[in-house]
Design brief:
The chain is built from 12 helices and 4 strands. It is of the alpha+beta class.
Length: 249
């Protein structure tokens, strides 16, 4: 056990921040920490947009489902998969790169690069005593986010990251059991064993929701997932990927 592991194990989403703004030094440290994440083949296929304009933040909050912590935080980052600069490199070096940039593999590379960078940013922020909340809701209308942030072709707004000084910290949600997530040598295929583990986890989550200080409810994890997955959402994502120069083959 060390301070890094303690920070990781203490993670929870924060949805209530004070009005204290992040300093330029904090922003730079968070971004520079993000940049030190591993990147596939040194491609560095992501960009980070800091949104400080109050009207833009208000619009992003609306797009994300009227989540007020998108607007009220210390700083708001938008993490993007970005192959635009690599298209520019193709022009600089007189290289035909479009065929490569439009492959499924490069889409995965850019998304994974951005995700790895964002988690480095989160660990850096939390190590400073700040709170964070990932905002996938900006994908509710990726076309609107593109226009709002002036994103060129080959740039995908993946998720936001609200960062700030916590005003209120929620109880930590229990995660899936270690035995359910970690498989050794081969994947556990037995559905009966999976159902046994899930039923045990449901009991844990039910107890968590019943005992927490606010927003108590009678619910389980599998019930939540069943409700959520039975209603497909964000069905325009594929259209946006194509419009931004991905998946054209």
């Amino acid at each position: 056990m060390n301070q890094v592991i303690e920070t990781l194990l203490n993670h929870r989403s924060v949805r209530s921040f004070t009005d204290e703004r992040l300093t330029e030094e904090q922003i730079r440290l968070i971004v520079e920490s993000a940049q030190r994440a591993s990147t596939s083949s040194f491609i560095q296929a992501y960009s980070i947009i800091g949104v400080t304009d109050s009207e833009k933040k208000a619009r992003l909050a609306e797009i994300a489902g009227n989540q007020n912590y998108v607007m009220n935080n210390g700083h708001f980052f938008v993490f993007c998969a970005d192959l635009y600069r690599h298209e520019v490199i193709g022009d600089m070096r007189d290289a035909e790169v479009a065929g490569t940039l439009e492959t499924d593999e490069k889409l995965l590379v850019a998304v994974i690069d951005a995700a790895l960078a964002s988690q480095n940013a989160v660990v850096a922020a939390e190590s400073m005593g700040l709170g964070i909340c990932y905002i996938g809701g900006i994908r509710n209308d990726m076309f609107a986010v593109k226009e709002l942030l002036g994103l060129p072709e080959r740039v995908l707004p993946l998720f936001g990251l609200a960062v700030g000084v916590p005003d209120h910290v929620e109880d930590q949600k229990p995660r899936l059991p270690f035995e359910h997530v970690y498989h050794e040598n081969t994947y556990e295929l037995d559905p009966n064993e999976l159902k046994r583990q899930l039923s045990h986890y449901d009991e844990t989550i039910h107890g968590y929701y019943a005992a927490r200080g606010a927003n108590r409810r009678d619910d389980t994890w599998t019930a939540q997932m069943g409700r959520m997955l039975s209603k497909p959402t964000r069905l325009d994502v594929k259209d946006f990927l194509k419009a931004q120069g991905y998946l054209k083959h």
